[in-house]
Amino acid sequence: QVQLVESGGGLVQVGGSLRLSCSTSGRTFSSGVMGWFRQAPGKEREFVAGIRWSGGSTYYADSVKGRFTLSRDNAKNTVYLQMNSLKPEDTAVYYCAVKEGILVRTTKAAYDTWGQGTQVTVSS
What we know:
Elements (H helix, E strand, L loop, with lengths): L2 E5 L2 E4 L4 E8 L7 E7 L6 E7 L5 E3 L7 E6 L4 E6 L8 E8 L13 E2 L3 E6 L1
Parallel strand pairs: 2-11
Antiparallel strand pairs: 1-3, 3-8, 4-5, 4-9, 5-6, 7-8, 9-10, 9-11
């Protein structure tokens, strides 16, 4: 059974940076997609970014494009979300999730397995 564990969240000031990690266990990924989503209080869970495990193609929501960067370490079965120039509106619980196939979907229903989430708080 695949398990995902996020880490790296915390409190940061506006303009600061954080790097989130999503470590996977129970399966060695050679295909599929990992997505990152976030959910702020009182809001729907929204797509942030996604990466194809094979080939490493990345996709970003417009709200984070140019500020957030995905990368992966195949040997560690880990994906990193580097977040720069953070804004108060980036405050949310961030989740990683995985799905089969090669298409990066932006809807949470497309993803099969989720991590427990990590809190990111950006203070102004």
